[in-house]
């Protein structure tokens, strides 16, 4: 991954391929000198602007720059600079007087700049830094924006340094200017950014890996290797153990595949922990829909249906790397949903790990089945809270779009705490209800419950189904990341095309808050 360091060097004398500066759209002239609509050079770039005799904004405007979020403009560096290029990235509207740019604004700008510098060896980022949180956000944005997945490209197989973006390797090194390398808070912010982003990018790699190379067994093997490296206890239940234990949901979903399912338990423990969190992830390594087969146009990206499990895996490893004073258990419910003569049929009844029976009305509503078993198993440890993460319903995408995940819970205060944690982490989420009247739609004449209910409010119905498998008295939240987990449009900010690593930063932030005693 891209290297990240703090530097005290001045921009003119720093050896790099480019100097990154921020520019903004000027607001009203109330309390300031900039006129509305003027381009404004952001703090952090004073030395660069001075080298242009204070005319950097004018030069950029001549080149068409407007300061819009994520806009990138390159120009030759001034005489005397060791870097040949200045890259100006838009920060959007200039904040009010005495206010600063938000961390998410900085994160997105750094991501756009890092992506634009693919093929470069080193870049110095001279963006606005007022505190350690700003430095961490810029570092995160740069590390996430520089991400590329090129394992399967011909050039990459011949030379690991080539073939990333149009034949260009990712930006190799980022030097953050304006920080304080000897300050503990700044050092911690950078170290945190590196740990979280490396694991988030690992989650992206897993989501992007083709399903012929990432079946449940292969996914489990990846977790075992990482667990060994970072001192995490791991337990993998194979098909025999699942059969013996009565995990009817996971086995039922995986019954049609030649690749057997797995249930993975990852346990990170801290001797100073006062709280225990359980994260549960849906890990359908490929979802054809099963007998309720998805139509053409809806199955090409279904390798991403294990994004929830990838997020949980990444969050547990990140918690271990950060040494958080909280116990975190990750449960990865892994299966491949395929049609065959042995596949579960619509109308079949499965006996779940909890003992409850489920009538399967639609085999393409499989995620809730594997999660149900994992949730009940996680509940046996009596954690202080459980959060499950899943690309669960198209209904949530219809409700919230492609960039926002829904948050449901059996406790309103905990739901609010999770939403706030997501906002602090820079992820868009929205609180959703669990209306009791929708439960009736899942009544079954044959079993205890059906895996389908009313079509309207389908995302909420799925949440209500999962709620039935959470242990009594345990606080629980459900994150439906169906929209933001996989970006099949163009990249933006620090978000690439393909797997995004959605929910990783939210889970890590929740764990940090639990460790400090500040979680809701």
Brief account:
The protein is α/β, with parallel strands linked by helices and 520 residues long. 33% of the residues lie in helices and 21% in strands.
Rg, alpha carbons = 24 Å
Annotation, overall tally of beta strands: 20
| Distance between the amino and carboxyl termini | 34 Å
Strand adjacency order, main sheet: 8-9-11-10-14-18-15-16
The helix content, as a percent range, equals: 25-40%
Provide a descriptive summary of the structure in words.
With 520 residues, the chain is α/β, with parallel strands linked by helices. Helices cover 33% and strands 21% of the residues. The protein has 15 helices and 20 strands. A hairpin with a 5-residue loop joins strand 12 (349-351) and strand 13.
List the defining traits of the structure above.
520 residues; seven-stranded mixed beta sheet; 15 helices
Write the layout of secondary structure elements.
Layout: E1 3-7, E2 18-25, E3 39-41, H1 46-51, H2 56-62, E4 72-76, E5 85-93, H3 103-116, E6 122-126, H4 132-145, H5 154-158, E7 173-177, H6 184-208, H7 216-230, E8 233-237, H8 239-245, H9 248-254, E9 262-268, E10 276-287, H10 307-322, E11 327-337, E12 349-351, E13 357-359, H11 367-379, E14 385-390, H12 394-400, E15 405-409, H13 412-425, E16 429-431, E17 449-450, H14 458-467, E18 475-480, E19 486-487, E20 498-499, H15 504-516
Parallel strand pairs: 1-7, 2-5, 2-6, 6-7, 10-11, 10-14, 13-17, 14-18, 15-16
Antiparallel strand pairs: 2-3, 4-5, 8-9, 9-11, 12-13, 15-18, 19-20
Helix pairs in contact: 3-4, 4-6, 6-10, 7-10, 9-11, 10-15, 13-15
């Amino acid at each position: 991954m891209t290297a990240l360091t703090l530097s005290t060097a001045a921009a003119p004398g720093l050896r790099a391929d480019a100097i990154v500066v921020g520019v903004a759209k000027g607001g009203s002239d109330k309390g300031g000198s900039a006129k509305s609509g003027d381009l404004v050079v952001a703090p952090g770039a004073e030395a660069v602007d001075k080298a242009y005799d204070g005319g950097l904004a004018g030069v950029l405007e001549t080149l068409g720059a407007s300061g819009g979020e994520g806009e990138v403009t390159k120009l030759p560096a001034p005489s005397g600079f060791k870097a040949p290029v200045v890259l100006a990235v838009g920060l959007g509207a200039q904040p009010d007087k005495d206010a600063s740019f938000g961390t998410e604004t900085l994160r997105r700008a750094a991501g756009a700049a890092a992506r634009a510098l693919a093929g470069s060896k080193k870049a110095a980022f001279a963006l606005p830094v007022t505190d350690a949180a700003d430095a961490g956000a810029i570092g995160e944005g740069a590390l996430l924006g520089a991400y590329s997945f090129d394992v399967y490209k011909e050039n990459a197989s011949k030379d690991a340094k080539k073939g990333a973006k149009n034949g260009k390797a990712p930006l190799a090194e980022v030097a953050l200017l304006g920080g304080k390398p000897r300050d503990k808070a700044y050092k911690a912010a950078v170290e945190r950014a590196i740990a979280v982003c490396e694991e988030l990018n690992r989650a992206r790699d897993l989501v992007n890996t083709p399903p012929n190379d990432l079946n449940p067994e292969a996914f489990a093997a990846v977790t075992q290797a990482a667990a060994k490296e970072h001192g995490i206890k791991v337990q993998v239940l194979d098909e025999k153990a699942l059969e013996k234990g009565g995990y009817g949901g996971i086995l039922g979903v995986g019954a049609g595949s030649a690749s057997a399912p797995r249930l993975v338990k990852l346990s990170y423990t801290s001797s100073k922990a006062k709280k225990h969190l359980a994260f549960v992830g849906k890990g359908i390594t490929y979802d054809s829909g099963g007998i309720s087969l998805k139509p053409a146009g809806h199955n090409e990206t279904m390798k991403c249906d294990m994004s929830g499990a990838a997020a949980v895996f990444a969050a547990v490893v990140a918690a271990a790397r950060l040494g958080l004073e909280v116990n975190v258990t990750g449960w990865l419910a892994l299966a491949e949903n395929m049609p065959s003569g042995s596949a579960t049929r619509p109308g079949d009844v499965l006996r779940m790990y909890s003992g409850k029976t489920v009538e399967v009305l639609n085999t393409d509503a499989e995620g809730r089945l594997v999660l149900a078993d994992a949730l009940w198993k996680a509940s046996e440890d009596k954690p202080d809270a459980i959060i499950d993460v899943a690309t669960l319903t198209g209904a949530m995408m219809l409700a919230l779009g492609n960039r926002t995940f829904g948050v449901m819970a059996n406790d309103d205060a905990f739901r609010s705490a999770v939403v706030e944690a997501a906002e602090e982490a820079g992820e868009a989420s929205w609180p959703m209800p669990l209306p009791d009247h929708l439960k009736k739609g899942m009544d079954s004449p044959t079993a205890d419950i059906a895996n389908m209910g009313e079509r309207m409010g389908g995302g909420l119905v799925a949440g209500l189904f999962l709620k039935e498998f959470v242990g009594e008295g345990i606080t629980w939240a459900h994150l439906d990341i169906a929209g933001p987990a996989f970006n099949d449009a163009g990249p933006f900010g620090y978000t690439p095309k393909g797997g995004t690593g959605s929910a990783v930063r939210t889970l890590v932030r929740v764990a940090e808050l639990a460790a400090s005693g500040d979680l809701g």
